[in-house]
Amino acid sequence: MGSTDSKLNFRKAVIQLTTKTQPVEATDDAFWDQFWADTATSVQDVFALVPAAEIRAVREESPSNLATLCYKAVEKLVQGAESGCHSEKEKQIVLNCSRLLTRVLPYIFEDPDWRGFFWSTVPGAGRGGQGEDDDENARPLAESLLLAIADLLFCPDFTVQSHRRSTVDSAEDVHSLDSCEYIWEAGVGFAHSPQPNYIHDMNRMELLKLLLTCFSEAMYLPPAPESGSTNPWVQFFCSTENRHALPLFTSLLNTVCAYDPVGYGIPYNHLLFSDYREPLVEEAAQVLIVTLDHDSASSASPTVDGTTTGTAMDDADPPGPENLFVNYLSRIHREEDFQFILKGIARLLSNPLLQTYLPNSTKKIQFHQELLVLFWKLCDFNKKFLFFVLKSSDVLDILVPILFFLNDARADQSRVGLMHIGVFILLLLSGERNFGVRLNKPYSVRVPMDIPVFTGTHADLLIVVFHKIITSGHQRLQPLFDCLLTIVVNVSPYLKSLSMVTANKLLHLLEAFSTTWFLFSAAQNHHLVFFLLEVFNNIIQYQFDGNANLVYAIIRKRSVFHQLANLPTDPPAIHKALQRRRRTPEPLSRTGSQEGTSMEGSRPAAPAEPGTLKTSLVATPGIDKLTEKSQVSEDGTLRSLEPEPQQSSEDGSPAKGEPSQAWREQRRPSSSSASGQWSPTPEWVLSWKSKLPLQTIMRLLQVLVPQVEKICIDKGLTDESEILRFLQHGTLVGLLPVPHPILIRKYQANSGTAMWFRTYMWGVIYLRNVDPPVWYDTDVKLFEIQRV
Asked: Coiled-coil stretches, from where to where (predicted)?
């Protein structure tokens, strides 16, 4: 891109800046213009020619020069926004300043002494436009920069198509321009799809990269437990001060959701045409999720009742959050807009799956983690969208890719974050009855996945993948076991018929979780048995008719239930169980689970490549903090069951106040009694053993086992099909205990998950921006960068 000459001139200017010990006057244009006026340097050039060590040196040794450089670069962007960037030279200056600021900003953020610099006012930069020198009215540099970026993102002939026929005297149109007419892509609230323009896309991308860099100050603050810390850059940019907030939000959302990497439906098309849209779409997705980083637990997110038609945004609402992007997102309400968003996200999430059965037919996109965060935000902030997603089987177009990612990433410790967000989304969906109902749709898509072959429904797919994660996932996934089983509990009352493969998997989990050494080796492990028993009870009481496979599996494995009922509680037995555990290091054996062959064309889930970079994550809250119990009434409505204040969990510690860190420690496979933390006592075992919900299953076994044994003896049978036929036509009406009310554990927003999302999202953005490496090797505080 840049010629050798301009690179040399630029490098010369950088060297002068780093070697000058005297402050250079802001009025010395001959000096400052070298950085942007005569050069044409790509962003990669700027990163190569401005080394980190030199930026830090200027910051330490001649701070006033660094301050002036930033101030002058912002001033040039403001001038470009004011003039409308008509000449090529002006456009070049804006791009150069934008690249330079992208390079320098992270080094300003990493130094606490500099953090306030952009929020200080610059003399003469009045809020009321040029020439007003009253300092009360001066804008902080950050505000001037953000407003200039916003203006430049809707600059005719630079970032959007000009609507004017003649170029004569069009300077005034920058101020009168209605940017809502210049939205970048058709979709929500905008019907016109502008001609694709490579240059405009590149310019937008450069400005969005700078915007994301402005927002990235959040990376340089350690994770705060009270996540009320709003990002001042995001807060200002998404406020009413930004007159382009609505068209920009719409442009970003539509650009992401309208993107089709397949190349307009023609397979292998991307091999012929380079796709310059993808980098813009990635940047748009990243900016969008950062602007939506808003703790919904601490603010009333508007719940929507009345629908108004006519506008894309629902005006019938309370004003909602200050952050306009969150506000607009929560007020989208038209069916066709929901359809556009859902179809777009599902198409992009399914893209890596297409790759597996038509290799190279489409361009493989890499930003599925950003899409999952965006989908989460949509469901969390816009309940109407959530209900729309669950209204039809379209939700399965989101479910299948998520299960694919979960299964594919299960052995890779660098993708633990991806595992968490996938599970969080499924937990959120599973709180709604419709999700369980949708899972009954037969699963016929044959995406090659490293799981046993089965014939069945989407519910079978979900349980088989969860079993695979639990039995052969990375050990750092143990904290997710509660979540995975909670999802299965939530959907279980609606599952009409599980396949034999799935039934065996569920019983294998019960077998593994109910061994004495597992139950006695950590304070929380017995919860997993409670979840599984709840699944069996829900299916027996509410879906007995179609579930002969599960009933048969329970009968075959009846010894497991008898062992649980007769669990030993005396000290010698507890001691013996823990001795046995030291000899059995493997937390869950794969034996006893008939694995069967994996699907054709699938590859085993691979661990992380050595040397892979990953970012650390904060601990997630325990399941009792993540969810709130609700009871399903006769008419299908949910009634919240607020825990009684004096209630304590099975192990005698207060249920609500259980800190997630302690919870993680207790889950560690190492025997905690050795380190003196916790050891099981007979009283403790009895306290929860007495609560095991075994009555329904014991009654079922009492009634059916003699009948099944009689068939076998009478007919000399070893044939399953005859027994299954008997179970299919059998009934337990009037023989089982009165059905228990259905309990659903619904996800509830809390500051712990808000903080988790923030660290996860910025970690993804940090790792994905490698060309240029915007934040690499700077002193980030929000997470640690680790090598596998």
From this structure: none
